[in-house]
Amino acid sequence: MKLSQRDLRMPGRANCYFHKVYTTNCSKMLGIFKEKLVNAPKELNSPASLNSSTKPKLTHEILQDFISSNSLNAFYMCFGNDALLAHSPSNHSFIHHRLFSGVENIYCVFMGSLHNLSKLNKQYGLSKGTNEAMFIIEAYRTLRDRGPYPADQVLKELEGSFGFVMYDNKDGTVFVASGSDGQIGLYWGIAADGSLAISDNMDLIKASCAKSFAPFPTGCMFHSEHGLMSFEHPTKKMKAMPRIDSEGVMCGANFNVDSQSRNQMMPRVGSEANWAAWGSQA
């Protein structure tokens, strides 16, 4: 299928480009972030990828696969050579939304729905028309700049099924979370150039990252600088468990809460407590 594409420079967005693509099929999302931006768990990168019959792919190859298999009006945004977010809005009515929003150089792809969105919007002083993706951005901005609460406490307030990938282009920060009920599946893996790829399409990530992929753990959040943690059990450490595929080969890792461990948390108060400083007070 021949693709038509428009490339537009986003006004006021240095090194940020918007691309709209017309194709057909299903609705998914994709985020790819260069190794220099993220501190991905080392256990996610399996040595078996080097000897696998299916080799990891480069960023442009993964993006092309996304474009060729997705729905009408798919689009993606490139942030220089460091990051990209791709999204394909659905033309059908689903219980769970797939939404894309951008506010002041912060961009979010949100999947799912929040039952208490109206209450949350009122709590944060947001308009009634604020959707889930916009709420995540506004909550992030509020807590990043002046909020007294850590991220795990905020995520615990979200009622519903959700998964989101957010990128702060100003700070080069990646933030990912998956709801506790597991209804919105996310998958992550390591591409050929060491980039971190994240999608709700398991087949895309598996084909892109060879043996170096895994499901993103539910009830957890990932920050590009501070790593992976459970927002349900913020005082516990995460433990990597080997994943063995049908060929008997280690394939990335599953990450579970280590009930026997305890994170060393420092008390945080005032403006220093924000989404970049993980965890609750010990």
How are the elements arranged and paired?
Blueprint: E1 4-9, E2 16-22, E3 29-33, H1 59-68, E4 74-79, E5 83-87, E6 97-103, E7 106-114, H2 117-123, H3 132-145, H4 151-156, E8 160-168, E9 173-178, E10 187-190, E11 196-199, H5 202-209, E12 213-215, E13 220-223, E14 227-230, E15 237-244, E16 250-258
Antiparallel strand pairs: 1-2, 2-4, 3-5, 3-11, 4-5, 6-7, 7-8, 8-9, 9-13, 10-11, 10-12, 13-14, 15-16
Structural overview:
This protein is α+β, with helices and mostly antiparallel strands and 282 residues long. 16% of the residues lie in helices and 34% in strands. The chain has helices spanning 59-68, 117-123, 132-145, 151-156, 202-209; strands spanning 4-9, 16-22, 29-33, 74-79, 83-87, 97-103, 106-114, 160-168, 173-178, 187-190, 196-199, 213-215, 220-223, 227-230, 237-244, 250-258. The strands form three sheets. Strands 1-2-4-5-3-11-10-12 form an eight-stranded antiparallel β-sheet, covered by helices on one side. It has a six-stranded antiparallel β-sheet with strand order 6-7-8-9-13-14, covered by helices on one side. A hairpin with a 3-residue loop joins strand 4 (74-79) and strand 5. The radius of gyration is 18 Å and the shape is globular. Residues 1-14, 21-25, 266-273 and 278-282 have low confidence and may be disordered. Residues 30-257 form the DUF3700 domain. InterPro entries: DUF3700, Ntn_hydrolases_N, TSJT1-like. This is DUF3700 domain-containing protein. It holds the Pfam family DUF3700.
Number of helices: 5
Distance between the termini: 56 Å
Strand order of the largest sheet: 1-2-4-5-3-11-10-12
Quickly give the structural class. Answer: alpha+beta
What is the total tally of β strands? 16
Question: Helix and strand succession?
Answer: EEEHEEEEHHHEEEEHEEEEE
Helix content: 10-25%
For the largest beta-sheet, the strand count, sense and barrel status come to: 8 strands, antiparallel
Spans of 5+ residues with little confidence (pLDDT < 50)?
1-14, 21-25, 266-273, 278-282
Compute the CA-based radius of gyration: 18 Å
Please report which band the strand proportion falls in: under 5%, 5-15%, 15-25%, 25-35%, 35-45% or over 45%. Answer: 25-35%
**Mean pLDDT metric:** 82
The rough form would be described as globular
